[in-house]
Amino acid sequence: MPFAELVWLGLAVTAAGVVTGLLAGLFGIGGGAVIVPVLYEVFRILDVPEAVRMQLCVGTSLAIIVPTAIRSYRAHRARGLVIPEVIRSWAFPAVAGVAVGCAAAVAPGSLFKAAFVLIAGIIAAKLLAGLEDWVLSDRLPGRLGMTG
Fold it and tell me: Residue 18: helix, strand or coil by DSSP?
């Protein structure tokens, strides 16, 4: 790929990152809602095979969560806003979820596309409805509910 095209691609990805950050900050949506489609197009331009393109997009988006989550956890813990019981009850289910997610990496790209569209549609419907009273409870569920 010519250097000039790489520069434009780099600028486009940087701009997409800025838009992702702004949307996540303003509306509280996850960055994956923006970055997955952007990565899909970037990987298409880079001739990544269709058979693995969507898996690579979702995996890249999820990989970004790790350092972000660690930084967020440390900042919240420093302010005394972490509930240790919640962390303990989520530890095993989180690791199990990662294992299941790794096994799902062999799923066809169309499954990832359908899941992305479904989840993005639900989030969009909630944002469009603008209902602030969509609260399931004002307290945490019990141990079984937290583990689930």
Answer: helix
